[in-house]
Design a protein that fits this description.
This protein has about 220 residues and is an alpha+beta fold. The chain has helices spanning about 5-20, 30-35, 40-50, 70-75, 80-95, 140-145, 155-165, 200-215, and strands at about 55, 65, 100-105, 110-115, 130-135, 165-170, 175-185, 185-195. It is built from eight helices and eight strands. β1 (about 55) and β2 form a beta hairpin.
Length: about 220
Amino acid sequence: MVTTTLQTLDRGLAALSVLAEAPAGLKPAELADRLGVHKAIAYRLLATLEGHSLIRRLPDGRAVLGTGLIPLAAKVEKQRLTAAAPLLAALSASTRTTSCLVLADGPNAVVALVHEGGDGYLRVTYRLGVRHPLTRGAPGLAILSARTPAEDEPPGVAEARARGYALTRGELQPGAVGIAAPVSDEAAISIVALQELPEGAPDEVIACAQAIAELW
């Protein structure tokens, strides 16, 4: 049986796979080398993918994965997010904080699920789809702590690995303190509040992350 494929589509999907393995991004010539195609083809592939927000260009011309992949991934993750939602709500209720589930997307952390908590003006809000580097903020450090130690990892990662959770102050929002525990090396649970977190919060975040890991 002869199987026919669309060469351009195949190359586009291959380009996304290559970029997924290059968190720092690739220039068109580098992508062309890895795909084994002419540089002009790589430029056209990137232009097409950029038009659908599947990749984005950095100021120096490197291409990285784009935000257009997030809604696609959200549909794939829908079952897991639905399973995690009640546990996240319970965590917010018990700690009276805003809680969120964060997923790794290349070198970034992306907020995939949020449950707002807290009291009145003390409530901290978080928007779905917000991105920040894995190297900043408690959720990113927690995700990195579940991975194999690296020589260039931030000091906070080793600390998180040793105690089972990451703690940061004011890294993502002025005056906010966050605690996060890894669900896996690609996901973390985090709570955030203004100034201080309730007593016992680390244990509750760790327990929630472990419960979600068992569901997944």
